[in-house]
Structure formats: C-alpha cells, structure tokens
Amino acid sequence: MNIEIKKSIKPINYFDAINLLEKRLEDLHKNKDKELIWTLEHNEIFTAGTSYKENEILDKSINLIKTNRGGKITCHAPGQLICYFVLDLRKKKDIRKFISCIEKSIIETLIDYKIETFSDKDNVGIWYKKNHTINKVAAIGIRVKKWIAYHGFAININNNLDQYKKIIPCGIENKGITNLISIADNNYSNLDNLLIEKFTSNLKI
Fold first, then answer.
1. What dotted CATH number matches 3-203?
2. Does residue 79 contact residue 159 with C-beta atoms inside 8 Å?
3. Over the stretch 132-184, which tens digit does the pLDDT of each residue have?
4. Going by DSSP bridges, is the β-strand pair 73-76/45-48 parallel, antiparallel, or unpaired?
5. pLDDT value of residue 1
6. Residue ranges covered by each domain of the chain
7. I need a surface site. Which of 41, 155, 166, 187 has the fewest CB within 10 A?
8. How far apart are alpha carbons 103 and 97 in whole angstroms?
9. Which of 165, 139, 152, 135 is nearest to 196 (CA)?
10. 170 has catalytic annotation
C-alpha cells in the first residue's frame, strides 16, 4: 500500500487541515498523489457534521464550525489524538467495511493498553462500559467523495471533558464521554504509532 504517513507535533489549524485533505483528495482522484494517514491535534474547536441539530448546542456562546463530514457535534482539543486520512475506496466500494476497519483498529490498539472497548451499530464510535455506564472514548466522522474517504476519527486521551457539557456530543443524550487517562493511568505516548500500525494492517484485509 502506497500510503503517506504524516505526524504533526504542534497543533494544526482546523481549516488548514481540511484544505489539505480536500486538495489531497482531488490529487488522489487524478492519480497525482498517494493516500494519506495523518495524526495530529487541534486547539479547542467545536465542529458539526451534516446531521447535527440546533438543540444539540447547549452553550450558545461556542463558536461552531459547520463541516461536510458525517455525524453531529463534537469537540476537538489538546489531549485528543486525531487521525485524518484520504483513502481510496474505488476498488472495494464498501463504506460499511471501511468503518468496521476503523472501529477494529481502535479497539485493537486499546487492547494493547488492556482497555476493552466496543463498537455499536446504532451509535457510531468506540465505547467503554464500566458499572453499567457507557461512555464514548473515540468518535468517527467521515465523508466519501468520488469513492475516496476523508476526514477521520479522534481518540480522547487526556483532553478536558468539561467542554462536552456545552453540547450534546454526537447527538447522544443517554451516554457520556470519557478519555483514556480516566480509564487507566497509562503512558499513551506511543498510541499514535500503534494505531497507524493496526490501521494500515487492517486496510490490507
């Protein structure tokens, strides 16, 4: 697989990131560039997918950025690992299988930290259950254009969970949000490398 792996250390401006993804998509569609997997962080920003509703904004003072990805409202902030991608589905044309590949990659990565999580066909994302309470630990929001998938997913590591009180995260009222450091006090500095390893491996299947 001819995929460029890009890792950014400093926080990346949201609009700069999306512009890069959209340009890469066009270039990939014309076979002028290779596929991309890109790990990064954003400074605090609230983004809304195409299916969000106004009543999901609880704090009207937030600056909400409307995007063309699927899904509803989420918050990006330092302490959250974002994995963006531009990946060619033209040969397989199976979006459900692709989303399953993302879910599997996150779940397998977290197993390496002895954290058991699961996907939910009714609520996209990766979830953690403890004492009958179910909380989301990773969000997924993708868009497919010309059979090329882009945008990506985000794993909460040690981000500020209070920011989620300003919205109904992903439009789901009866479940919460957590992060990895709240689940297990591990060193997650290598999580991006493990994730890329699992993701690229699962994409080949």
1. 3.30.930.10
2. yes
3. 999 999 999 999 999 999 999 999 999 999 999 999 998 888 899 999 999 99
4. antiparallel
5. 66
6. 3-203
7. 187
8. 10
9. 152
10. yes
